[in-house]
Amino acid sequence: MLASTRRYFLGQASGVSLGAMALHSLLANPASKLPHFAPKAKRVIFLTQSGGPSQIELFDEKPGLMKWAGQELPDSVRQGQRVTTMTANQKQLVMPAVTKFARHGKSGAAIGEWLPHLAKVADDVCFIKSMHTDQINHAPAMTQFLTGHQIPGRPSVGAWVSYGLGSENKDLPDYLVMLSKMQRPSDQPLYDHYWGSGFLPSRYQGVKLRNAKDAVLYLRDPDGLPRELRRGMLDGIAEINQKRLDETGDPEIATRIRQYEMAYRMQASVPALADLSAEPEEVFELYGPDSRRPGSYAANCILARRLAERGVRFIQLFHPDWDHHSRLPSWCTARCRDTDQASAALILDLRRRGMLDDTLVIWGGEFGRGVAGQGQWDSIEAGRDHHPRCFTIWMAGGGVKPGITYGATDDFSFNVAENPVHVRDLHATVMHLLGIHHETFTYRHQGLDFRLTGVEPARVVKEVLA
Fold first, then answer.
1. Per the structure, how many domains does the chain have?
2. Within 10 A of 76 (CB to CB), how many other CB atoms are there?
3. How far apart are CA 190 and CA 179, in angstroms?
4. C-alpha to C-alpha distances, 8 to 1, 303, 395, nearest whole angstrom
5. Would residue 149 count as lying in a domain?
6. What pLDDT shows up at residue 252?
7. Do β-strands 368-374 and 421-422 pair in parallel, antiparallel, or remain unpaired?
8. How much is the pLDDT for 217?
9. By CB neighbour count within 10 A (0-12 exposed, 13-18 middle, 19+ buried), where does 30 fall?
10. What's the gap between Cα 73 and its chain centre?
11. What was the pLDDT predicted at 114?
């Protein structure tokens, strides 16, 4: 019964309101105390490539693999490391890259031929080729990549940033998410907990913009409902919710009050945001022909820039189907066509608007691909299995050194050889660029002080900082 619950007791305590004290503790946003120091980045655009892009074809040039083609991966390299059940029963035969590499820019960055547009902005980009993670399957790997833990229930990195820093725009959420509208069916799930708030109050979770006519459902008032009537209705609901909040101290009621008000303001801000008709022709030319298709990755990149202009703190795009288990030459090239021009255009667009210096752009997926061919290694049908031991991401802007490559892998792109960077280190570095000490930025839950980077060692990768 309600009368026997601890929350009810706290809410009904006489004298000093324990419920109010608990509510203050639960809802206290550290934004007034953050950032801890002057940030290099004011906002983040996270271009999340779901499925595991192949570093071997795109970034990690290994010409020496040709002499190993069709031979079994040496035990001295594999070192007993597990593979998934999809390739556990076949020989691990080396498959060299099925693409060609060239060096680009003054930095001489090695980039595969399937990314010609990224090659043009190579000197704006910092490549980290020594990323590694603990998880070998998609859902736990992506969950760790975005929340710091492989089991759902922790806040996403965007939710942590929302909780810590809030937004510069009170008419839009702090954290907005967009999923690419694919031109073919995709069987790769994108779970809500990837942008969830976990044990943080739910006001900090990512708000998903739909890739449809109405970017947010139920935002429009019914026909014939005057704006002033809607305002009066919300005021009445807020009064009822506030009364219940005073009684119970439930932080989710506070979230509900805030979200009603946010939705009211979004009724004006979102339609204007989602309408790209005012963008000049040269913007669509910059981002590519797919940028005119609503919900495409390219169109979402334009929306990401518009959100950044409006002061949204954390913007995340998800593009699925980077899972190259078969038909690698056609499957991977299709994903590159989807994303390459628009990703490079976003860098150029931010730079010419004077926003790149304080906008951190991150591109990457949850893990990489293995050097062994999945299936018949020399067949056009061959692919690559999941590989957590090393993969590549890139970053640009927001206090990151441009035109550098950090870290290296062995001759097989199988193990990290120099300067390993764990997912925890990436999180620590992102927080640092936003002016946050990752070790002291915590939230108390179930008697423990949780942090994004967890309890295992994590370091800020200072070598990539400008």
1. 1
2. 7
3. 9
4. 10, 44, 48
5. yes
6. 83
7. unpaired
8. 59
9. middle
10. 33
11. 98
The mean pLDDT value for 321-346 works out to 96
The verdict on residue 28 lying in a domain is no
Is the pTM here over 0.90, yes or no?
Answer: no
Report the alpha-carbon distance of residue 389 to residue 130 in Å, rounded.
Answer: 9
Residue 118 has pLDDT above 50, yes or no: yes
Residue with tokens 């290296």: 408
Contact 155, 199 (CB under 8 A): yes
- One-letter-per-residue 3-state SS of the chain: CHHHCHHHHHHHCCCCCHHHHHHHHHHCCHHHHCCCCCCCCCEEEEEEECCCCCHHHHCCCCHHHHHHCCCECCHHHHCCCCCCCCCCCCCCEECCCCCCEEEECCCCEEEECCCHHHHHCHHHEEEEEEEECCCCCHHHHHHHHHHCCCCECECCHHHHHHHHHCCCCCCCCCEEEEECCCCCCCCCCCCHHHHCCCCCCHHHCCEEECCCCCCCCCCCCCCCCCHHHHHHHHHHHHHHHHHHHHHHCCHHHHHHHHHHHHHHHHHHHHHHHHCCCCCCHHHHHHHCHHHHCCCCHHHHHHHHHHHHHCCCCEEEEEECCCCCCCCHHHHHHHHHHHHHHHHHHHHHHHHHCCCHHHEEEEEECCCEEEEEEECCCCCCCCEEEEECCCEEEEEECCCECCCEEECEECCCCCCEEECCEEHHHHHHHHHHHCCCCCCCCCEEECCEEECCCCCCCCCCCHHHEC
Assess if residue 243 is contained within a domain.
no
Q: Examine residue 419 and state whether it is found in any structural domain, yes or no.
A: yes
Cα gap 214→262, rounded to integer Å: 16
CATH number for position 414: 3.40.720
Domain encompassing residue 50: 33-218+283-464
